Structures are given as structure tokens and as C-alpha cells.
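pasting DUF4845 domain-containing protein for the record, 121 residues
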Amino acid sequence: MDMKSKQNGLSLISLLIVAAILAFVLLIGFRCVPAITEYMAIQRILPLVADEGDNGAPIADMRRSFDRRAQIDDVSSVKGADLVIVKEAGQVVIEVDYARTVPVAGNVSLLFDFHVSNVKR
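structre below
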């Protein structure tokens, strides 16, 4: 008796398609890492600057402090002048909205809109 065996697994074409999709996803991921690390750096800096304001630092000093800390953490999308600094209920609240464009390939880009605040809402 001659029985035909059914082949299991991926064919070469299927393997190439899966590899191409995986490569594209990795490309997007690697391109997005700098934007995410910058966001996390800003998220880490704002509470430190707000603490200075809670201790009596004027707004101009808080903006300069943010600029110094941002330079150390390689933050280029936000400057001290972009910060919205207000005092609510005796506490300094610092917020910033900014957008970051991440080029993917050719004329295709991703746009990230970020909102960072030292107060959790």
C-alpha cells in the first residue's frame, strides 16, 4: 500500500513572508525606542523640577533646571520654555504636550503625541 504522507510545517514562501513581517515589526520597534526613552526621561525629570518649585524655586529657575537635566538625558523635543507651570492647592504642577515624528521608511512616518505631567490623574 502506497500512502501519501501529508507534509506539516511552513513552506519556504510562508517562512519568507513571516520573516518579512517580523523584520518590519522589529524595524518599527527599533525606530520607536528613542521616542519612548525620551518620554520616560521627561516623565522622570518633571517631578524633580516640581519638587524644586515646592521648595520655593521661581519659575525661571525651574525652567533652567529642566533644561540642564534634559541636556544630560538627551531630551531634544521639549525645552524649559515649553513647560506649563502652575500652582494648584499649594503644589507645583508641571505639564507639557509635545509631538514626536519617527521616520520609518521613505516618506512613511509615525507621529506620537505625548502628554507628560508630574501629577498622576
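Strands lie at 84-88, 91-105, 108-117.
Residues 12-117 form one domain.
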